[in-house]
Write a structure and sequence with these properties.
This protein is of the alpha/beta class. Helix 8 runs parallel beside helix 9. The mean pLDDT is about 95. The chain has two domains: about 210 residues, Dihydrofolate Reductase, subunit A, CATH 3.40.430.10; about 140 residues, Cytidine Deaminase, domain 2, CATH 3.40.140.10. The two termini are about 30 Å apart. Helices cover about 25% and strands about 20% of the residues. It is elongated, with a radius of gyration of 24 Å.
Length: about 350
């Protein structure tokens, strides 16, 4: 089991980046269709976390609303609703709050702090690493974080978020005293490293932006794109179907390719690299995503894909499946590593590559 759960952050903001206004009533930033989307996301998580200020201000119930989704959770051996989690430094929480009304609640607080619910001491202060480690030990694999500003900021600046669902509502709050999405801080996603936008969806009059934040999830996304590209390969009885994507440090695609896309002998990595200027400075920070381990031996061209990657100066290669010994004994991963390239293998996507190439395996 992982040392921490998968962490998904979810919130709705105004066009000027606020979570709410300064009135006594919560500001309606979303709509019924988006609330149903969030309900579906909740149903797929093991726990939901909000900060103590969110409980005091919004009094959320944090339940799965749809009966069929609750029934599906029970049928899968889970409780009807995810575990409810909060973080507090003072313990100043109303035991009659909706948060404590039903289900299981975990309250993380410094040692000695008393509060309603099941209180878990975290030492002198509440550290998100400690919270996630304890949740993992309790079997929580997927955590949904729904607010507020302080909690969002802590998870983001600590680099502990894997995914962000950000819904933007078409209105302005225009009040600097209102709560913002995050506080000031040093975030990992600035300058050369940026979050990876994987979806933009209109939901009525709001827009959902879905970002991947952790490198592992970014790798899985782009490797999945490479696998889908491999499904386009013209049929061949003597070569594997492979897809490749080259992505720069900012998350922009430099090129895509797949086996035999321009001629009957070209390999996926070779095809992608042929579409990039060899002097493009972005290659020095790029990642090559290939569904299959880059070749280290071939007869159809004078240079292997391993040699082409090394010559291009690409510092990082991610693939799903080692090259099977159907045609040659490959050692692309070893040669790349010996050349100073960071090599990452994601075998959880290997079955998809085998399925594409099942005629040869």
């Amino acid at each position: 089991m992982s040392d921490r759960p998968y962490v998904l952050l979810s919130c709705a903001i105004s066009l000027d980046g606020y979570l709410d206004d300064t009135t006594d009533r919560p500001l309606a930033l979303s709509n019924a269709d988006d609330f149903d989307r969030v309900d579906e996301v909740r149903a797929g998580c093991d726990a939901i976390l909000v900060g103590a200020n969110t409980i005091r201000r919004d009094n959320p119930r944090l339940l799965v609303r749809d009966p069929s989704r609750r029934a599906a959770r029970v049928a899968a051996g889970k409780p009807e609703n995810p575990v409810k989690v909060t973080i507090t430094t003072s313990g100043d929480l109303d035991p009659n709050a909706a948060f404590f009304a039903t289900g299981e609640q975990l309250v993380y607080a410094p040692d000695g702090v008393r509060a309603p619910g099941t209180v878990v001491g975290t030492g002198e202060r509440v550290d998100p690493h400690t919270v996630l480690a304890d949740l993992a030990a309790r079997g929580i694999r997927r955590l949904l974080v729904e607010g507020g500003t302080g909690v969002m900021t802590e998870f983001l600046t600590a680099g502990l978020a894997d995914e962000l669902h950000l819904v933007v509502a078409p209105l302005f709050v225009g009040d600097t005293k209102a709560p913002r999405f995050v506080h000031d801080g040093r975030f990992p996603w600035d300058g050369e490293r940026r979050a990876t936008l994987v979806e933009v969806r209109q939901i009525g009059n709001v827009a959902l932006h879905r970002y991947l934040l952790s490198q592992s999830e970014v790798d899985r996304h782009w490797l999945g794109v490479a696998v889908e590209l491999s499904r386009r390969c013209p049929p061949s009885a003597g070569a594997f179907d492979v897809g490749a994507v080259v992505v720069d440090a900012k998350g922009d695609v430099l090129a895509r390719g797949y086996s035999r896309d321009v001629d009957g002998a070209v390999h996926a990595e070779e095809s992608a690299l042929s579409r990039i200027d060899p002097d493009d400075p972005r290659l020095g920070g790029a990642t090559m995503y290939s569904s299959l381990e880059p070749c280290s031996r071939r007869r159809s061209r004078p240079r292997t894909c391993t040699e082409l990657i090394l010559a291009a100066g690409i510092p990082r290669v991610v693939f799903a499946l080692r090259e099977p010994a159907t045609f040659v004994d490959g050692e692309g991963a070893e040669l790349l590593a010996a050349g100073g390239v960071e090599v990452v293998e994601l075998p959880d996507l290997a079955d998809a590559v085998r399925e594409v190439n099942r005629r040869l395996l």
